[in-house]
Amino acid sequence: MAASQRPGKKMVSRCNPDTERGTLVFDIAGYSLLKGGLGDSDFIRSASFTVGGHDWCIRYYPKGVLAEDSEGYISIYLELMSKTTRTGVMARFDLRLLNQATGVSTVLTDQVTPRLFKSVNETWGTQTFKKIRKLEASPYLQNDRIVIECDITVVLGTPVSAPETVCEIQVPPSGLLDDLRKLLEAEKRTDIRFKVEGEVFRAHKFVLATRAHGG
């Protein structure tokens, strides 16, 4: 049985999401004052910033969110500050701390999968952002100051292009099997002989092998 031919016409439709990216830097002075003055689950907000037509801010919890798992940690969240459509808004983001000795920020929370913010004041982030005792012994805290960065990519839409033809080639049907059959029947330049009921036949080894495998 001959192998089926691939169609010569190929059409492609592409999806290329529209996005907008931005970075907010939240420079927090008076670290020790905030830690001593705020209670568990108390937070301060950064100023809002606009990316992808929506307003966002960073929430900083100096003593962490009131939860057993977050005890001894600071907690950081990204918050949607503006109203959205019924379907919400998708955003991918990472949260970082600036190493004040090197000037390089380190990603501590990386949301590779976009998160859906369904309504105003909805948050995504981590309650165990950084252990407090490790933060206070690190170059992330200097002169009673920490710097938090949030890099956010907002998905604006997922347009799909109309199909376009990328190639159109007329592929002729293969005549290989007919050629091999004719070669077998012609008995020219044969390299094998076999006898069937007293009659001697000449053939080609590779043709017989092809017919044996191909049926």
From TrEMBL:
One Pfam family per UniProt: MATH_2
Pathway linked to the protein: Protein modification; protein ubiquitination
GO biological process: protein ubiquitination
Domain MATH: 21-152
CDD domains, alphabetized: MATH
Protein name per its UniProtKB record: BTB/POZ and MATH domain-containing protein 3-like
Parts of the chain that traverse the membrane: none
Xref: InterPro entries: BPM1-6 (IPR045005), MATH/TRAF_dom (IPR002083), SKP1/BTB/POZ_sf (IPR011333), TRAF-like (IPR008974)
Species in which this protein is naturally found: Panicum miliaceum
